[in-house]
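Exercise: predict the fold of this chain.
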Amino acid sequence: MSSPHAAPRPGATPVRRAVPPGLLFALPFLVLFAVFMVWPLVQGLWMSLTDASLSAHDPSFVGFDNFTEAFQDAEMWRALGHTVLFTLISTVPLVLVALVMALLVHTGLPGQWVWRLAFFAPYLLPVGVVSLLWMWLYQPDLGLYNHLLDVVGLGQVAWLSDESVAMWAMALTTLWWTVGFNFLLYLAALQAVPDHLYEAAALDGAGAWRRLWSITLPQLSRITMVITVLQILASLKVFDQIYLLTKGGPNGSTRPVVEYVYDVGFTGYRLGYASAISYVFFALVLIASAAQYAALRRREK
């Protein structure tokens, strides 16, 4: 009897190894990923090195001239500053409000299904509906918010036309619209906290606040870091609601960098320069993501 590990006989046809089943299952995803992610990234990088334009059919290679212009573009840095400001004033409430909402529902409020639906339903609305709804709420004369301010004796606010208020109005709209997703993540994490921790704390005489600070919040530290990272990345890419509500106004005070890329590429027809700005922004987002990942790893250690 020949050994199963014996060398093949001379002249025998080598047996081909079967394709790993995992690769076959992943192949459709890999093809779509290459077509819709890898190829656009490569094409966009090449475009950033040319003077491609919607009005020109034969772009010429310009090297790093677009990147040099981008770093010297005051409007790009101003738009980037607006993006960072929006990220700062939206991320904190989107994390804290979601946590409070999840804690309220998890403690057993009457009619929990109503609260869950009310907290999560706005996240399911398309951005066009959200923008139209909040445009009416922000109306100077007929809007609900200015009516409430009149009732309590305060002056009206130009929510969308005052440079000092418009960005805060965008953050408030985004909070109402997207906080439901973070709320759902927190609620799932709360349901995964072991009950025996609370039972042991109750036997030791710990009150509700002590259980919150000593058990609940430490158990939620990892999901809090995940939500914070996801929220920062989402806020950095803000575009839709700002474009529909203010179109970057008044006087460009709410224009984020993504809208600036849109304006340069599709209003100014400079696709090559818009691509260069996109890759500058992409590099900054990568740096921010790497810093957050390093902080998360250091916290875990």
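Check your answer against the key: The chain has a mean pLDDT of 88.
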